[in-house]
Request: fold
Amino acid sequence: MSHAGRPRKPSTDQDILRAVAELITERGYPRVTIDEVVERAGTNKPAFYRRFRSLTDVVPRLLASRHGTDEDIDTGTIVGDLVEVQRRQRRLFTDPVVTRGFAGWLADIDAHPERGASFLAEYLGPRRAYTQVILDRAAARGEIAEGADPGWIADLLTGPLIMHVVMPGLAPVDSVLVARSVHAALDALGYRGDRSIVDLEGAVSEQRSGAPDVG
Amino acid sequence: MSHAGRPRKPSTDQDILRAVAELITERGYPRVTIDEVVERAGTNKPAFYRRFRSLTDVVPRLLASRHGTDEDIDTGTIVGDLVEVQRRQRRLFTDPVVTRGFAGWLADIDAHPERGASFLAEYLGPRRAYTQVILDRAAARGEIAEGADPGWIADLLTGPLIMHVVMPGLAPVDSVLVARSVHAALDALGYRGDRSIVDLEGAVSEQRSGAPDVG
DNA sequence: TCATAATGTTACCAATAGTAACGTAAATAT
DNA sequence: ATATTTACGTTACTATTGGTAACATTATGA
Reply:
């Protein structure tokens, strides 16, 4: 099947992804150059440009390979579902590729919108849509009222995390932050049931670590 | 006074700031070049580099000139104070210099931390600290309990706004978003008093405009 | 065996950040 | 007045970078 002609060396794709991840982690997105990427990947510029149109195109592939295999969430309670959503978001937003690469990548696709279309359709959209699924099930169980705006709930769950990722001087995304954001979402939903699992799983009891806040 | 020697032409500073603001608005931060900046400002590269170490250094000056003259906030109620905070934040986060420039600038200072130190000390820090002042006064009035974490309240007020600024496909920061964020902050503070001013001033009744959300 | 397409190397172009050199102009200090 | 100091604006330059072109070579499918 596939096509005629010499096939691409499969390892080169992985080598490039690994090299980009390392360089973003070490230097931050704006300092990553293609020359360094291909050197560290043990390949060359033409091979790179046969696979990707630009560095910007690599990042979605990188995120998919590291965080793209999410299974469905259905713990049976709204609290459990939101805790699980945030557990995954915490993992995403503490990945150094994200903490040091996301802002620069977002700026790139703002300046070159065509490069971000696929990310929007394949990554962002489904994740925001999934909040809707969780809220619909919770409403069907009678845990919350119908009619909540899933977009706003997603904002509450993700906004504070993104803020801590992109703003300098703020503590990394930690268990305290995700637990608080779940509480805020539950408040916005008017949820009045048991929340003990939030602090057990989210672990508010853990000490906040790392850099202190600015304010 | 000052020093000996020919003084800098004062208009050049303003011309550069204006040119950078225009180019960020038109093209997005990553596509702004120094050559274009100085051409549009009617000056030249040496004059630019006598004033700024890099493009990254211009942005804080730009923000200060557009949003730096904040007067103190003291409306007499916690609700009024938070509404006013968010009114200003809405103005900030709908400025095209911010919506098209902030992510790229944040990425730059992540990669070159020394360039962001002054912004952190002079802009971010004081704003987060101001939340503390507002909460302390509210606690002294008995509107809320003591001991609230002003960092978390600031996260709730600013996180969703930043998210809508940097994530592609989300609606611009509007009155609905700021009103909701004030409600979330009041919920987190356990505030049980009158909130009618939130929806009057924040105007939840306004229709949401512009691009719809992705999810 | 032939067509196809990727391999890796070398070389190249165009755009860009940032600096150097330099004669000129405008301020202060004596 | 004169000397000193510093910004002015022009030209030119270096180094880095993104991105392509050309090319001989190698691996696959038909």
Q: What stands out?
A: The CA atoms of residues 159 and 181 of chain B lie 9 Å apart. Residues 2-7, 33-35, 45-46, 49, 54-55 of chain B lie near DNA strand C (CB under 10 Å from a C1'). Chain B touches chain A through 51 residues (CB under 8 Å).
